[in-house]
């Protein structure tokens, strides 16, 4: 039976345009979503990473890492989601370098104390992530260590240094691009969980209580301009600068308030004024973006929960839901109930179930539209979901 082509306005009637999509029946729809989302199981973790737009210009900038670290006191469980923006370079670099950087710092702590206090691990994670970010910016400062000399250089002189099609150009790109960071770390006894968040990815802990009900706990903070506390923090750090937050964006230009990279918002204006003139007049007292993560620790044994799991995702999953600004009150409970509903099903990818619900659930036409619409530009954000089982 031939597949049916239909048209849709994708919910944007003001665009006065229609796009073609393919109406997919089951089980084809489910198998196609599984294929496009690269659904897989890795070391007790269910994974999907999804961007349906076929235009290479809009290839996903999300990255994830699933690693187990054999350290001196046993095997530690490390998982991470990185959501790149403005380009792939910083997300690629962070995904390839930060896990080892963190592992070395944790290993150094364990060499001194095989049973460190949870606060020690939390501080180590926070300091290491911030230090990692500083190395990215320092590499650029090393190229131009003298601000006065830089101010006197011509554009051609600067271009000769940075456009080497090699290491210098890579350094600049890592500074100009950015990435969020969301990591989880579990000790060998599975007694302690740490979650470090930098940016607007989300981590939700779920489990079943003694009354057989699913409970949820948000373990991340949305570091963006829509978070009033974050926006106020930026304003407090830059008194008198009325446009340090503009339209829920830092300097009116970037949504996140904390990230790795994005040194356009961290370095003195002399390092960026020839490239980013749109908001450079607002760059008065940098840094405006922070690289200090929020780190939360959970004593897993004290929760009294069974069938415990951790959901980690980029903000694309939240953007699929109309209640995204009410993560703690609504989305966390919804997501945990969705995972809980399928938790005992053999062979079911729990991350894929969350993605399916976000795309439309049992509404076959809506899901079909979301995964097959023939558009040349991106109609949804990059979406990566990890579900870590059996904590």
UniProtKB/TrEMBL annotation:
<dbReference type="InterPro" id="IPR001932">
    <property type="entry name" value="PPM-type_phosphatase-like_dom"/>
</dbReference>
<dbReference type="GO" id="GO:0004722">
    <property type="term" value="F:protein serine/threonine phosphatase activity"/>
</dbReference>
<protein>
    <submittedName>
        <fullName>Protein serine threonine phosphatase 2C</fullName>
    </submittedName>
</protein>
<dbReference type="Pfam" id="PF00481">
    <property type="entry name" value="PP2C"/>
</dbReference>
<dbReference type="InterPro" id="IPR036457">
    <property type="entry name" value="PPM-type-like_dom_sf"/>
</dbReference>
<dbReference type="InterPro" id="IPR015655">
    <property type="entry name" value="PP2C"/>
</dbReference>
<feature type="domain" description="PPM-type phosphatase">
    <location>
        <begin position="49"/>
        <end position="390"/>
    </location>
</feature>
């Amino acid at each position: 039976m031939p597949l049916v082509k239909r048209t849709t306005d994708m919910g944007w009637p003001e665009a006065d345009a229609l796009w073609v999509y393919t109406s997919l029946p089951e089980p084809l729809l489910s198998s196609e979503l599984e294929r496009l989302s690269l659904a897989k199981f890795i070391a007790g973790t269910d994974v999907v990473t999804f961007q349906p737009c076929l235009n290479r210009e809009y290839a996903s900038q999300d990255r994830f890492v699933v690693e187990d670290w054999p350290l001196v006191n046993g095997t530690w469980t490390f998982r991470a989601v990185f959501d790149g923006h403005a380009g792939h370079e910083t997300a690629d670099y962070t995904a390839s370098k930060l896990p080892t950087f963190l592992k070395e710092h944790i290993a150094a702590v364990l060499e001194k104390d095989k049973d460190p206090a949870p606060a020690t691990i939390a501080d180590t994670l926070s300091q290491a992530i911030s230090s990692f970010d500083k190395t990215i910016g320092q590499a650029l400062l090393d190229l131009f260590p003298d601000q006065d000399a830089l101010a006197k250089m011509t554009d051609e002189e600067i271009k000769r240094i940075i456009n080497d099609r090699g290491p210098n150009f890579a350094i600049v790109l890592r500074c100009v691009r950015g990435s969020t960071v969301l990591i989880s770390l579990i000790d060998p006894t599975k007694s302690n969980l740490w979650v470090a968040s930098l940016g607007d990815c989300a981590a939700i802990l779920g489990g079943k209580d003694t009354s057989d009900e699913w409970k949820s706990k948000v373990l991340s903070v949305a570091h963006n301009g829509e978070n009033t506390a974050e926006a106020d923090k930026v304003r407090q750090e830059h008194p008198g600068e009325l446009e340090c937050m503009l339209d829920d964006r830092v300097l009116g230009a970037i949504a996140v308030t904390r990230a790795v990279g994005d040194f356009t918002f961290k370095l003195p204006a002399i390092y960026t004024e020839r490239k980013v003139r749109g908001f450079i007049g607002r760059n008065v007292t940098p840094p405006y973006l922070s690289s200090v993560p929020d780190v939360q620790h959970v004593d897993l044994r004290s929760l009294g929960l069974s069938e415990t799991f951790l959901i980690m995702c980029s903000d694309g999953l939240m953007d699929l839901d109309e209640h995204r600004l009410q993560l703690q009150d609504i989305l966390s409970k919804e997501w945990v109930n969705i995972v809980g509903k399928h938790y005992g099903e053999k062979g079911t990818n729990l991350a894929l179930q969350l993605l399916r619900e976000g795309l439309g659930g049992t509404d076959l036409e809506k899901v079909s539209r979301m995964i097959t619409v023939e558009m040349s530009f991106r109609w949804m954000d990059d979406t990566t979901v990890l579900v870590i089982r059996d904590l």
